[in-house]
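Retro notes
What went well: the complex prediction finally ran end to end.
Inputs used:
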Amino acid sequence: QSALTQPASVSGSPGQSITISCAGTSSDVGSYDLVSWYQQYPGKAPKLMVYEVTKRPSGVSDRFSGSKSGNTASLTISGLQAEDEADYYCCSYAGSTTLYVFGPGTKVTV
Amino acid sequence: EVQLVESGGGLVNPGGSLRLSCAASGFAFSNVWMTWARQAPGKGLEWLGRIRSNSYDGMTEYAAPVKGRFTISRDDSKTTLYLQMNSLKTEDTAVYFCTTLNQKNAFDFWGLGTLVTVSS
């Protein structure tokens, strides 16, 4: 059982915006601005899309944006495109004992 | 270009051992903290453990499900990361990924993974 909670699936039409939530606790998401998001296509390696809640690595489209409120982080994909159809995982630093926790993943369908 | 290539996966009996390798290139391996993660068939990602750079202190830390059974090590001269897995269980069946860990506590580069199947 994952320490973080994500919806199993989110869908949207091309051009729309969708938001994926990632609910944690005051021990992880709520305590650290160290939430990251990963995109994974079937059978492929995950790709870092957002780190430190809101920052994008070089080369990641600005259609992907992250935010956080309290114990819940979110990833918003704007201007949805067919290529955005993938699984998305959130991850949070959770302190020196647990270190890192992942969410169960959200399947995005366009 | 950063490249991480895992190897060593395969079929192993419950209770057995296996050592995975991750050959790294395209970056200053010795300065980078590294991690292992896994993904069971049809399931989500699970972080397993990390090793700090030797220039920092070379320490390792593990997730609870694998602590005491798995050991991470690195050979900076070979730019290779290792995962020694002992006392394997059927629930350890998964694709195992090595990743870099940046200073922002994000896993910024991933290998393609290697499949480990624990079954009799």
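What we learned: The mean pLDDT of chain B is 97.
What to try next: split runs per interface for comparison.
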